[in-house]
TrEMBL record:
Belongs to the leucine-binding protein family. It comes from Streptomyces spectabilis. PANTHER family: BLR6548 PROTEIN. This is ABC-type branched-subunit amino acid transport system substrate-binding protein. Residues 1-20 form the signal peptide. InterPro entries: Leu-bd, Peripla_BP_I. Residues 47-412 form the Leucine-binding protein domain. It holds the Pfam family Peripla_BP_6. Residues 28-49 are annotated as: Disordered. The keyword Methyltransferase does not apply.
Length: 435
């Protein structure tokens, strides 16, 4: 369901992939202080330290969560080349929490207590066990990926998609989060879709997320076909054949990229054609051609939805700046992703907050940065994000006007934007779910 779809999908896939893992590892921190390459003038003051916590190594895989970190680091490198913030270099300290709660708490301790960072930026972790400690310390956590409910639970935490929840120590409203049906409304209105299939594994987290998607589709009047495959021995061909027989217009899933690729290959094999095989922002990457190499027809029916501007939108100046910065960081066009762009946007957000402190004559402190973040005004990262709002509503919204960014994969063009994300907007019901 729109933004929560991204959150819950990532968490469901992380849970099913991590279900066989055991134990934990202490984090490997690659704290780094890069000397400014002639960009930051001397005498501007001591460096501003920021921290980036990432589950760079985890049961989910080595590169699953690193996109936002890479985008943020590329932005800060570009910023330092251009003079930093009021002549002060931004010193980036990264920490790999290993995908465990123990590792996450260790990273929080290192960054907050030892490195004394002024803020965390672009947090992307499997288990944000240290979130209460970050909140209690009053350290603003800016532009993190909400894999879990921390950004709808604690003050001083500002995820990349915003929140209307009270954030007083309990998720959402009395343990219930809410999400809209804008994604399903979009495909019904713009593509004329009427029948949707939801494919999941026979695993608790995957099945629970599939039920959530089914509720949203039914709220929008779809006929919903549910399909489940065995996690250990999946029969994707049987699922694909049934999708063809049922005449599904759309296919949603609660599976990992590998499972999606196998499903797509099976759909090609049996001749199942759909209007859209819909995925989320985590899979909005340039590696689609390789990931789905065995499914050319299904691959060209892939659509992605999210809340940020398509990284292929080179006509937009902020996207061009992002791509230039990533190129300097050694990330060519064939390795870009939407999560990298969102990490870049998170770094932009911190920079706007820090500059507001400097412009008012204040020192760039945790408290000053947090005042900017909590001011209640929407933020769009120079047009890279749908306006992000942080409020504290006592009651959850019944309906809400929400917008969605949509792109479609085409082999000869990559991800092609479908309409203006600031115009793909609908007033839709907000449905409750438990994190």
């Amino acid at each position: 369901m729109g933004r929560p779809r991204t959150v819950v999908a990532a968490l469901a896939v992380a849970a099913l992939l991590g279900s066989a893992a055991c134990g934990s590892r202490l984090p490997e921190s690659d704290f780094e202080r890069r000397a400014p390459s002639g960009g930051v003038p001397s005498g501007g003051g001591p460096p501003l330290r920021v921290g980036v916590i990432t589950s760079a190594t985890s049961p989910v895989g080595g590169s699953a969560f690193t996109g936002p970190r890479d985008g943020a680091k590329a932005y800060f490198a570009r910023l330092n080349e251009r003079g930093g913030i009021a002549g002060r270099e931004v010193e980036v300290h990264t920490c790999d929490d290993g995908g465990s709660g123990v590792g996450n708490n260790a990273c929080v301790h290192k960054l907050l207590d030892e490195q004394k960072v002024v803020a965390l930026v672009a947090t992307t972790v499997l288990d944000y066990a240290g979130a209460p400690r970050v909140s209690e310390a009053g350290v603003p956590d800016i532009g993190g990926q909400p894999i879990g409910s921390a950004y709808d639970t604690y003050p001083h935490l500002y995820g990349i998609y915003g929140s209307l929840a009270p954030r007083a120590g309990k998720p959402g409203w009395d343990g219930e989060l809410y999400g809209g049906t804008e994604v399903y409304r979009y495909f019904k209105r713009e593509q004329g879709a009427r029948t949707a299939a939801v494919v999941s594994y026979n695993q608790a987290a995957s099945a629970a997320y599939a039920r959530l998607v089914k509720r949203g589709l039914e709220a929008e009047g779809y006929k919903v076909v549910t399909e489940q495959v065995d996690f250990a021995l999946p029969n994707f061909r049987a699922v694909a054949a049934d999708l063809k027989d049922q005449g599904a217009d759309l296919v949603f899933d609660a599976m990992d990229t590998h499972g999606n690729a196998r499903l797509c290959a099976a759909m090609d094999d049996v001749g199942a054609k759909v209007t859209a095989k819909v995925t989320n922002v985590q899979n909005w990457t340039a590696t689609v051609a390789d990931d789905y190499k065995d499914a050319p027809r299904c691959r060209n029916a892939l659509w992605a939805t999210g809340s940020s501007r398509n990284y292929e939108d080179t006509g937009h100046p902020a996207v061009r700046a992002f791509r230039d910065g990533m190129k300097k960081a050694g990330k060519g066009a064939g390795s870009l992703s939407q999560w990298q762009l969102e990490g870049w946007a998170a770094a932009l957000w911190f920079t706007a907050a820090a500059r507001s402190c400097a412009a008012s004559g204040d020192d760039v402190t945790r408290a000053c940065v947090d005042r900017f973040m909590s001011r209640g005004k929407p933020y769009d990262a120079e047009g890279l994000l749908l306006p992000v709002t942080y409020e504290r509503r006592t009651e959850p919204p019944g309906t809400r006007r929400t917008c969605v960014s949509v792109a479609r994969w085409k082999d000869d063009e990559g991800w092609v934007t479908q309409g203006d994300m600031n115009a793909n907007c609908f007033r839709v019901p907000q449905l409750s779910y438990q994190p």
